[in-house]
Specification:
This protein is mainly alpha-helical. It has a single domain, classed as Orthogonal Bundle (Helix Hairpins), CATH 1.10.287.3510. The chain contains three helices and no strands. It has helices spanning 5-25, 29-54, 58-88. Helix 1 (5-25) packs antiparallel against helix 2 (29-54) and helix 2 (29-54) runs antiparallel to helix 3. The termini are far apart.
Length: 101
């Protein structure tokens, strides 16, 4: 007995909405980066669910590549956050209205 694909879609939608609210509401750059990761993982849940539902592995392969790109994105994002913190001593989004040093 398998779980219907609609349950995965609801779970993915809830995770995506939580991530979207985190991006729109929060002011901390690390929380915003984590919220973007939640949104990416929500789309990955959909890819895997539909890949399993249709019996095709292409969605799972796409998720594999998306996770590798997400790891690179996190590394670059954290490097930027560390550089901004060293220069401004803050990671609040309101402090970075201009991206010039």
């Amino acid at each position: 007995m398998s779980v219907p694909v609609e349950f995965y879609m609801v779970l993915s939608g809830l995770v995506f909405i939580i991530g979207l609210v985190g991006v729109l509401v929060r002011k901390n750059l690390i929380i915003i980066l984590l919220s973007i990761e939640l949104m990416l993982n929500a789309t990955n849940i959909n890819f895997v669910a539909f890949s399993s539902h249709f019996g095709n592995l292409s969605g799972q392969v796409f998720v594999f590549f998306a996770l590798t790109v997400a790891a690179a994105e996190v590394a670059v994002g954290l490097a930027i956050i560390i550089a901004l913190y060293r220069h401004h001593a803050s990671i609040n989004v309101d402090d970075f209205r201009l991206l010039k040093w």
